[in-house]
Design a protein that fits this description.
The protein is of the alpha/beta class. Helices cover 53% and strands 7% of the residues. The strands form five sheets. Strands 3-4-6-5-7-10-12 form a seven-stranded mixed sheet. Strands 1-2 form a two-stranded antiparallel ribbon. Strands 8-9 form a two-stranded antiparallel sheet. Helix 9 packs parallel to helix 12 (295-307) and helix 10 runs antiparallel to helix 12. The protein is elongated, with a radius of gyration of 31 Å. The N and C termini lie far apart (70 Å).
Length: 750
Amino acid sequence: MSGAIGGTTGTRTQEPGLAAPFRIEIHGLRAVAILLVAVYHVWFGRVSGGVDVFLFLSAFLLTGSFARRLESGRPLAVPRYGLKTFKRLLPPAVVTILGSLVIAYTVLPPTIWSTVGRQAWASALYVQNYVLAADSVDYYAHDAAAASPLQHFWSMSIQGQIFLVWPLLFVLGGLLLRIPALRSPRAHLSPRRVMALLFGAVLVASLAWSILSTASNQTYAYFDTTARLWEFAAGSLLGLALPWIDRLTGATTSAQRRPRGSALRAVLGWIGLAALLSCGALLDVQGMFPGWIAIWPLTAAALVILAGRSGRSWGADSFLSLRPVVFLGSIAYALYLVHWPLLIGWLELSRQERAGWADGAAVLALSLLVAWLLTRLVDTPVRRSAWLDARAPRALAAVAVSLVVVLVGSQVVFPQVTERSLTVAAPAPSPSASSPASDGEEVEPPDVPNPGAQWTVDPLTDGFGPIIPGLEEATEPSELTYDDDCTTELGLPETVTCRYTPAPEGDPDLTVAMTGDSHAGQYTGGVLKAARKHNWAVYYIGHSGCTFTTEPVETQCKDVNTSWETLLDGVDPDVVVTMGTRTSFNGGSDTEKDREGLDSGLALTTQRGIPVLLLRDNPRWPKKNEEGNRYDCAYRVLRDGGNNADADAECGDDMSNRMAAQNPAADRASDDPFAPIRVADPAGDVLCPKGRCSPVVGNVFVYRDSYHVSDAFSRTMSPWLEEQIEATVAMKDPEATGPAGAAGASDDGA
């Protein structure tokens, strides 16, 4: 017996002599749970609690099987169980993974390709939940919140991990039962009681951890197996206690005899179903789980199981025994696998955030058909194969072949992406007066390689590089990467990011410090290009989301805010480059603000006589909206045969709609000769030429997501960045005195 999503509940999965009575209400409960999962995904974009029921049932079914083996004295045969389980689970999963790779390559934008390729292996190896957990807290993971067609494998990964760990607890229980003191009649410890103590300890420890971790970091806890163990432990405890409860309450699986309290059982079953059906509607399952609130769906499932067979025609068990419900339960595993990638593919094709009632019904109907085919053609033949089950090496071969197929399939579906490029026709004149192509001229970034009437756009190497070179590995790594991690050298906390590239020829002619958040760091590619030409040394120092300020905070910026004085003295830069404003994801002329707390950071540079280049922020688009990603939006247009003007019309915007009418940081400019401050506007000068913020300029994607400039475009900005840095340094008078300069800068607002 393999589990709730991936297993069946019939006696055919049991070994002879160990079969438990067939409980059709559990089969029907699986059907209700999977239908909830699919329906909530398709139409409501919410989580239903159905997955928690699957986890609960997985442990319930697995525990019943091993408890009977332990009681009968038969070998637990853990290796054989593991091989048999994964031999059956992997083939349908692999088919789904391959199909998802095809959907990703043919339908989804290339920004998701590397994610899907990584998740394909994670899904096949049952570690997808921790990949998603890591991405959920990785600021630099590109579109970590974007939907992947393999995202739903997180729960299968947790189940797979439990299928490996749970049998070992029974091995531990068997070893404990061999201890003479525990075997004595006075101990009153039967195999089920020993296992109940073990699972009870797991439940208490895991639930405590789940409550704490959900409160402190719910996004990570949602995918964390240790925060979910208590759900499995609850299912195991019910599995251990149910035979005793059935005997006590007079339960029966016989259709010929009505159990005691049949009316109460019927009502109890409906209460359980009602609680389960209402869970996702009444609770924020995705935002509140897996803490104590997950007791709701687990209790609902437990009530249905405890009610068992009522013998009443109006009972919940009668509904769960209906042929359509039983059929749905028989394909539950396959339906869980296929419904999500089909939904993601359709939403991408239809360019919708949520399916409507009609097309959602079509997606669900198609999912049912594909799930039935997957069950009939793959799942059932493999599960019932006596030939594969006869010898362990055969089952092992089936597992190995499945993994190899994922490896080969990912290589076939995702060949060298650097060979896949887009030919963009010369932009046609735009009717918009503010469009960069309004006069029919080709608008190019300041340093476009190979300009011409037609450009070849490389969607990954040119459009989807790292935010900050050296912090994230690009698909085709640029030579412009940071060589050294200077965090330890400068005695900084680990939460502070420090990257250093030395000058090409020994002692640097100039030391540039890019300071603050990723919006300062995103220009390091362009600065490094100039550095290689002029023998500069370049630092990036800061943390995601952190302004160059010393103000005390209790956020991820706490350590870096208290380290700036140490950093400036240790690096001793000739110029500091940082951000002066912050734009809004919602856009609008009134949503670009001066950087709060910047005065305290500038006070440090003023005291030390360090010139500062203060950059205006770049435009942002809605982060949560799938259309907010400027790269994905532009790629779709170009992929479908459009040109730059088409991409601009669909994905661009006037600068006046994304930025303030005037630079809010303009009054921070200071020509103090000791510590000058130069304010520059990359948006007005380069990113949004002629007042229009286009997603593609020349043959380069401007943005990598909804709010970061691409590394490729940053490198085209190298001459502009070089000019701004040199002009800032030139403002400093070597003969200016510190006190006079400091006072002058302070008077000017620094």
